[in-house]
């Protein structure tokens, strides 16, 4: 499944990825041709109502991965189910400090139905990525703005703006590719830098707020539907959606059409536009 997608990507086809947390949407997305369903730890915000992703547990991730896997798997009423790759985020605290623990947790996500796991971090996580890959677990590296480090990064800020940080990001992406990751994801990275790194590494890149030069794109489902208005304890009027979020429901009128339009816009290279990028 993952191999087939990576092969298609080599011909220049763009990867359309969306976050997904339950079986109903998994089935709908699989039928709409979404290439990768990301069981994101953004569920801490959009499902659990927290203000960040720091309190999501392994148990939460296993549960939602199982829900998504159950909805996306092929069966008589969903023959295209086989076409969606399921990627699960490793939650904060589940992989950063101990490689053996990282492997056990990654294997639990694979057991629950994930085809690939995603970890946040660059140079300091290369050994962990290599360790998981050596034990047969495909990995995606998440670089740029890494929400699990939001406190350390001092807020939701674009990354790679200085020459030094841009160079570090390129080196991290190269090291991760060398370690054998299947994909690299860039969040809130200048479009020119993400495009440049995409040209420099042999694995596909996925962008969110990282411009149209990536090999694919990802959005949070609730942002695509325009229904996320911040954490449960905050008034909606105090929330400002990130620049890269685009409401596809507004222009289409049905959830199915919104997802289908997102997929075609990504495949055609029409999303993201300048206004979504940095
Ligand atoms: N609904 C939702 N969408 C996301 O894209 C998302 C999540 N949740 N949860 C996990 C992470 C957190 N992410 C976020 C959240 C907010 C901004 C944001 O507010 N960006 C503003 C900048 C605000 C500022 O400068 O302080 C922007 O305009 O892009 C960016 C990324 C991305 N991920
Ligand atoms: C925003 C994406 C890339 C993510 O990691 C998530 O949804 O958790
Ligand atoms: Mg995440």
UniProtKB/TrEMBL annotation:
EC number: 2.1.2.11
Organism: Methylophilus aquaticus
Organism lineage string: Bacteria, Pseudomonadati, Pseudomonadota, Betaproteobacteria, Nitrosomonadales
Compartments in which it is found: Cytoplasm
InterPro entries, A to Z: Pantoate_hydroxy_MeTrfase (IPR003700), Pyrv/PenolPyrv_kinase-like_dom (IPR015813), Pyrv_kinase-like_dom_sf (IPR040442)
Annotated Mg(2+) binding sites: 41, 89, 120
Presence of keyword Cytoplasm: yes
Active site (catalytic residues): 187
Family from the record: Belongs to the PanB family.
Subunit structure comment from the entry: Homodecamer; pentamer of dimers.
Cofactor: Mg(2+)
Reported function: Catalyzes the reversible reaction in which hydroxymethyl group from 5,10-methylenetetrahydrofolate is transferred onto alpha-ketoisovalerate to form ketopantoate.
GO MF: 3-methyl-2-oxobutanoate hydroxymethyltransferase activity
Signal peptide residue numbers: none
Cofactor binding, per record: Binds 1 Mg(2+) ion per subunit.
Protein name: 3-methyl-2-oxobutanoate hydroxymethyltransferase
Keyword Transferase in record: yes
Major enzyme class: transferase
Chemical reaction(s) catalysed: (6R)-5,10-methylene-5,6,7,8-tetrahydrofolate + 3-methyl-2-oxobutanoate + H2O = 2-dehydropantoate + (6S)-5,6,7,8-tetrahydrofolate
